[in-house]
UniProtKB/TrEMBL annotation:
Residue stretches of biased makeup (Basic and acidic residues): 35-50, 60-85
Protein name: FYR N-terminal domain-containing protein
Compartment annotation: Nucleus
Keyword list, A-Z: Nucleus
Stretch list, region Disordered: 1-152, 314-357
Biased amino acid composition, Polar residues: 119-141, 343-357
Cross-referenced InterPro entries: FYrich_C, FYrich_N, TBRG1
Length: 357
């Protein structure tokens, strides 16, 4: 029994002896692991800081680009007027110069070339002065601005959604176009240049509806009705929120109106986002199908600065999911339906799959 007691004592002594070394080894391992984790934390912190700076830089670039788009849309209306004045002045000056040249001499003026460049030339006549003048002056004495030639807008044929029409060729409304619901196409104001430009027409009475974040409830969205009113000198772009029926937002441009909505929606959600917005996108003017529907309105072809654009209507589907009929393309241009007009009526049921579009 005494032998067993001694063995137990030795076991206790050994366990206590070993337990004295184990915590020290574990402490050293934990210390090394803590140093490694500290180094990893510093690396991750530096990487996070670089990423934040990168995100902030990208946000600034995005705001600059959106602001440029906004300024371009604001100046687009005045650009079209200035361009027409410049072109008319240049044409009148060119016609005066050509008439003066014809009255003075029947032979065209040839430029000296080769060795004749060093010879003394004769004093030019007043008619030659007019022809050789590089800058064309206006009646006000100003030199017209040189504008970069833009690519013609009607080169590209855009594919558009098929929209059903009635017997008169008018589109049946309301109709869903993407995320927008077209409520009204309005009436084209062709006798005032501020109601259109080369790319878009802004009809008075145009109205679409779409969903977007609420400006008073950070946890929900609401429906917004975007309308165009007659502001006299130009169109007024109006936005009415369904949850704020008595507080419309009115601006001189579509971008200005929607920027106000985006700013309020971001502020109530405490978002550090850009408040810029593309008015043509939010109002639907950049949507090809809506552009064709507006171009097909009466008097659209009378808008002198607007460039008629080409569209191709996609073939509609019948109830079985197959394409039926044929759909043509074309610019329309005030014809009240363009390529999408049917011979008499349109039908979408499966009983008349051969109806031409």
């Amino acid at each position: 029994m005494s032998q067993n007691h001694s063995q137990i004592s030795r076991g206790r002594h050994t366990t206590s002896h070993e337990s004295g070394f184990v915590p020290q080894e574990r402490y050293q391992k934990l210390k090394r692991r803590a140093r490694d984790m500290q180094g990893d934390l510093e690396k991750v912190t530096k990487e996070l800081e670089r990423s934040r700076k990168r995100i902030k830089s990208l946000k600034r670039q995005k705001e600059l680009l959106l602001d440029r788009i906004s300024h371009y849309e604001d100046s687009e209306m005045t650009d079209s007027d200035e361009k027409s004045v410049d072109l008319s002045s240049a044409e009148s000056s060119d016609s005066e110069a050509s008439s003066a040249q014809r009255s003075t001499s029947g032979r065209p003026i040839k430029k000296p070339r080769g060795r004749n460049l060093n010879k003394k030339s004769m004093n030019p006549t007043p008619a030659n002065n007019i022809v050789n003048t590089i800058q064309v002056t206006q009646s006000s004495g100003k030199v017209p601005k040189k504008r970069a030639s833009k690519r013609p807008l009607n080169e590209k044929v855009m594919k558009v959604q098929y929209v059903e029409q009635d017997e008169d060729g008018s589109y049946k409304l309301p109709v869903q176009i993407g995320i927008l619901t077209v409520l009204s196409l309005g009436n084209v104001v062709y006798d005032r240049d501020t109601f259109h430009n080369e790319r878009y027409i802004w009809p008075v009475g145009y109205a679409v509806k779409r969903a977007y974040n609420s400006m008073i409830n950070p946890d929900s969205q609401t429906m917004y009705v975007c309308k165009i009113d007659d502001g006299g000198e130009g169109p007024k772009f109006v936005i009415e929120a369904e949850d704020q029926p008595n507080k419309p937002i009115v601006a001189n441009t579509a971008t200005g109106a929607w920027t106000s909505v985006v700013r309020e929606a971001n502020a109530i959600r405490q978002r550090d986002h850009s408040n810029s917005a593309s008015g043509p996108d939010y109002f639907g003017f950049s949507q090809a199908t809506i552009r064709k529907m507006i171009q097909d309105l009466p008097n659209a072809s009378k808008c002198k600065n607007y460039v008629i654009q080409s569209f191709e209507v996609m073939k509609p589907r019948n109830s079985g999911g197959r394409r039926r009929g044929t759909a043509g393309g074309g610019g329309g241009g005030g014809g009240g339906g363009g390529a999408a007009r049917t011979n008499g009526k349109n039908s979408t049921d499966s009983q008349s799959p051969d109806t031409s579009i």
